[in-house]
């Protein structure tokens, strides 16, 4: 039986996805264009026994969800550029202490207060490198509400699987646009629950000793195992250590657990890729315009294809190289100065075939914008 | 009484200098907890960054050593998520009131039931003796070589004004009093603050020619007095110790329980 058909905003689809995934705790601070997520959850969470708190700022919000996650809850915060900047230090803490949590950034124009109510995809590299120090991160996105729902569920699943923060990078257009969505039924999408240790009380539990498969079973604060959690480099008990072997082992573990699973984490959609001579690579709202261009070109018999990325970090270089490597031209469509462009170039043996089509003025890029840029690239003039 | 069962001896020796007041706070804290007969599994200790914040690692509770200034924000997430836990938050003065000042006043305003211990040594110990918002005018620090012109906070007045429902002050010289105040703070159902003057002979003492730990402890003895004492009337410059505020008022997590009930009864009335 199919689920209920609804008409809603992308931010609402994210809320539905989070609740479907088992969200129990939200902390946040209002900011356009993400505030609907907080507003909806302040209403929805307590109805099912969950907890919502509006904190004094985004720093506190990020810290509060980490604390709640340690008590065994699935947790979320939602923000936009300025708030995401404030969260970076605590995001790094979640990386270091391996705390499952999901952070939504509904992107708006930056830097600074920028364009609060307009579209941008300018935080892609911030999601990757916003917090200090070497690390790996998972960042996901989607272009339509059905996918926003599904990718939000995936974000929670990956946070639990890899014991890591996961960033959902949506954008103002997807966040605020209303469209149709069919809500999945319970059981339709797979859920990953918290992996808890089977070590009984009284037996030495090592919170930071990975199992053979790389996963680290957790123990809830308040349970039978008392252990230390810190943002310092730490040993398998979670106790601070400056031992070079321990330090090196931990940084390798933090990076490898994600980078070595790049293919498992990769989510993407390929449209007409197989015989495409011109491949567009895009993501988020921009991918909607890109798909429009590709479909109308196909109707005219032109060999266009689209690779829509949903996993932005870790960047799936091999998959992208494989998918677009044979194309004559690769056009990256994104609403920034080329964040993913460089990754696509890295993925290809002939990077000079890769072009950027963008808009930086806060106006959503249209199919016409893309077509005009394509004419320039093809040397046809406007 | 064996305090050893509360210590993670595997992680000793500790990082504190000889004569540091923070060890005395550790001792007082353990004795307060022991006297309350709390199970170690129901206590979560959350700290920030600083010499003071290292106290959590040495204690055999659920311990979370977080970011400079943010301990109360992490602790708020823990407490609201599992209100049955006893949450204790030891902080340095810089940690609690410079970088963490906003979280401090908001935790107080919410009156969320946890215990904030401000280990006030009037200096940034961990980073080598820079002045803090508790140093006070005229003091010397590595970033105030000519004399500090930054006025200080009165922690008790600030906490009270912000809404904390239990506020007390003591020192590392007055250990019995410290144990008693920490004990009452933990028992209190609301946001409780205990400011503990704790000596840093290495930086505050040396920079301000206050002598070593013994002289600094003597200073606490001479320069503090019980709240409302005659001595204070005669010498208004004395620092008062004791309980400044103790009231019953709605606690945040209990209020949230009411929201849960309200939302869920709406649930049973409407179909979605
Ligand atoms: C965001 C950030 N800023 C600065 C620091 C450096 N830092 C570490 S501890 C500290 C101050 C410590 O002083 P206090 O909180 O009073 O505690 P004490 O060490 O005196 O016990 C500072 C500034 C940091 N760790 N993080
Ligand atoms: S520097 Fe000061 S606060 Fe830090 S351990 Fe030494 S005496 Fe204590």
Provide the fold topology:
The complex is a heterodimer of chains A (382) and B (272).
Chain A lengths: L4 E5 H12 L3 E4 L6 H13 L3 E4 L3 H13 L4 E5 L1 H17 L3 E7 L16 H6 L8 E3 L4 H18 L2 E7 H5 L1 E5 L45 E3 L13 H16 L2 H4 L2 E4 L6 E5 L3 H14 L4 E6 L1 E3 L3 H8 L4 E5 L5 H9 L6 E4 L9 H11 L5
Parallel strand pairs in A: 2-3, 2-4, 4-5, 5-7, 6-7, 11-12, 11-14, 14-15
Antiparallel strand pairs in A: 1-8, 6-13, 10-12
Helix pairs in contact in A: 1-2, 1-6, 3-4, 10-13, 11-12
Chain B lengths: L21 H15 L6 E5 L14 E4 L5 H11 L4 E7 H7 L1 H10 L3 E7 L2 E2 L5 E2 L23 H8 L3 E6 L3 H13 L3 E7 L3 H7 L5 H11 E3 L3 H5 L4 E8 L5 H18 L3
Parallel strand pairs in B: 1-2, 1-3, 3-4, 4-8, 7-8, 9-10
Antiparallel strand pairs in B: 5-6, 7-10
The structure holds thiamine diphosphate (TPP) and iron/sulfur cluster.
The site of iron/sulfur cluster has 11 residues of chain B, from α7.
Describe this structure in words.
The complex is a heterodimer of chains A (382) and B (272). Chain A is of the alpha/beta class and 382 residues long. Chain A folds into two domains: 178 residues, Thiamin diphosphate (ThDP)-binding fold, Pyr/PP domains (Rossmann fold, 3-Layer(aba) Sandwich); 113 residues, 3-Layer(aba) Sandwich (Rossmann fold), CATH 3.40.50.920. In chain A, the strands form three sheets. Chain A has a seven-stranded mixed beta sheet, with helices on both faces. A five-stranded mixed beta sheet of chain A has the order 10-12-11-14-15, sandwiched between helices. A two-stranded antiparallel ribbon of chain A has the order 1-8. In chain A, α1 packs parallel to α6, α10 crosses α13 and α11 crosses α12. Chain A starts with a strand and ends in a 5-residue tail after the last helix. In chain B, 39% of the residues lie in helices and 19% in strands. Chain B contains ten helices and ten strands. In chain B, the strands form two sheets. In chain B, strands 2-1-3-4-8-7-10-9 form an eight-stranded mixed beta sheet, with helices on both faces. In chain B, strands 5-6 form a two-stranded antiparallel ribbon. In chain B, a hairpin with a 5-residue loop joins β5 and β6. In chain B, α3 crosses α4. The longest helix of chain B is centred in the C-terminal third of the chain and has 18 residues. Chain B starts with 21 loop residues before the first helix and ends with a helix. The interface between A and B is large, with 44 and 42 residues. The structure holds thiamine diphosphate (TPP) and iron/sulfur cluster. Iron/sulfur cluster binds next to α7 of chain B.
